[in-house]
Amino acid sequence: xxxxxxxxxxxxxxxxxxxxxxxxxxxxxxxxxxxxxxxxxxxxxxxxxxxxxxxxxxxxxxxxxxxxxxxxxxxxxxxxxxxxxxxxxxxxxxxxxxxxxxxxxxxxxxxxxxxxxxxxxxxxxxxxxxxxxxxxxxxxxxxxxxxxxxxxxxxxxxxxxxxxxxxxxxxxxxxxxxxxxxxxxxxxxxxxxxxxxxxxxxxxxxxxxxxxxxxxxxxxxxxxxxxxxxxxxxxxxxxxxxxxxxxxxxxxxxxxxxxxxxxxxxxxxxxxxxxxxxxxxxxxxxxxxxxxxxxxxxxxxxxxxxxx
Length: 308
Ligand code: SF4
Description:
By secondary structure, the protein is an alpha/beta fold. Helix content is 47%, strand content 10%. It has eleven helices and six strands.
């Protein structure tokens, strides 16, 4: 190996270590902030074969070694019998890791094809079926938590999707009870940036299974929001971080949801709430944020407003 090649390898190793540390740190922080993992937990790690779930399993396995609490991991993949699904990839990979795992085989693909007329979107029925199967599996396996691989950018995208298309300020919770009321669902990667996960998955050379085997079209609304956020990230570094911080720093008294905050009972005796109303004054922002507002390029919004 030439000296230059050796150098490159060292540099790559350095970058890999740094990246792994950051993802581990962010995951550990999210787990602690939301009390995601407790002593004695048996966590069902949902593995789709995409970069996010591979990364989640990897980081949880590594955190398990040094965690102050004892917990078990069991990786679960649902083989939905989509045409061309390479059934051997995940079992081979999971065997090599030595982690407990279960592959659940259920032909939801045929059910969806059968029930949904051609040209209509298949995702909502497909994910409803998948959710039901995963909940049932969690019960069978005695899992106390279900871990999903959504990351920070998924959470922000969902917030914008709900605001733009649903008229609702609602993201994706790092921890919540499932819709059937039976399982605690956690998202350990809630603080991790997608671009870190992409780089990490690339360095780890995971055996990624393509996510378009079902032949479904990508969600155009989500794609448009992703594009908008990526544009912002390039044009205004730090904006995405600020956006996510804002989800952790909500001031209900300064929004307009009268069910979330009791505006009706406010009177002169209520005192100053969260800094009070500043009348006709404008909000003050740090200089960098002011600059970002002044340089805003409205064309970045076009993709979103054009979505049907
Ligand atoms: S993209 Fe395919 S596999 Fe994924 S939810 Fe939609 S229909 Fe199901």
